[in-house]
Amino acid sequence: MTSRIGIAGIGIEIHGETLVISSQRVLRVLSSAVLNGGLTTSRAIINHHVPKGVHSLRPERYLNRVLRKRGLEPNSIGLMTAADIRNVSIINHTKFRPRLSVVVTAGVSNAMAAGDDAKHFRERTGTINMILILDGNPTDACLIEIVKTATEAKALTLRELDILSRASNRIATGTSTDTVTVASTCRGEPIKYAGTATVLGSTISRYVIRAVKEAVRKQDGISPDRLLVERLKDRGVTSKQLAKTVSQRLSVRLSVKPKRQFLLRMESQTRRVLQKTDIASMILASLKMCEDASTSPNSMRMARGAGASIAYLIGGEAGRSEFQKTSSNWKRALSELVVEGILSGLIAEAVKPTRSEG
Asked: What is the average per-residue pLDDT within 267-290?
């Protein structure tokens, strides 16, 4: 497979499991790559697909073997990914100088948020490798600023995609193994700045956002317009789980063992509730508010208000009354108040037919 980089003298090819970016001229590179990272010069950058478990080997030795097999110079930059190399996203900016190419492979099964406790890390595949190639002459300080701008854009993209940390369930800012590589041709006048308030920084941000979104969609099938039910499922809110909890609570309250038929009816009713746009939107907005909130008294009041509103939306006044009883001395996480609101509304709805049958 051969694709196009929109900068003269630079090409990109995929050979088997290796994506190779090669340049006719020496590039100045700032990279967090596992092989030959740092501030350096090189004519080639590789992004090599590895199966799960290779990280336990010596990655430098492994990638050096890949370089030799491909006949590349030993100072080539080496990246590793578990994502399918064929799901690469290449976005070129060629309307005005400096020209820019953004190359991204991405998998978010290993998503994490800045500040997550490392002890909660679970070994999973998934890496976002971003390679930015600039046909310009950024100073060393500017190269660092490009890394900063690109990283901010990546974090914003994950928020727009509603990707959650696998360690904390907060909005993810990346994965635990992301890399950024910035390569420049050093052509033209020195470029000093690339922050978000500059034309270059703004361009980098937009093109990184496009490339990351496309790469995540190709690899993991996640897009900004995915169904609300899927977003709720990411947060552990599923019709089956909710129906089971409602059935368990009602069995205690009514002193009867719920029949399988009742459980199936509850699952069906819960699915219908979660598929209603107004209810699903309210639940999702409330969960995101709780994810962003602290544990301050004001946050607790907001979360309790959101839970009560959801309970009312699903089960009417009976749902809100049910919620007020179960949440009066709440000590658990804010997001669980939202789930409690769903449960309260469902219980209120379920009790209505149960009472009429009695």
From this structure: 88
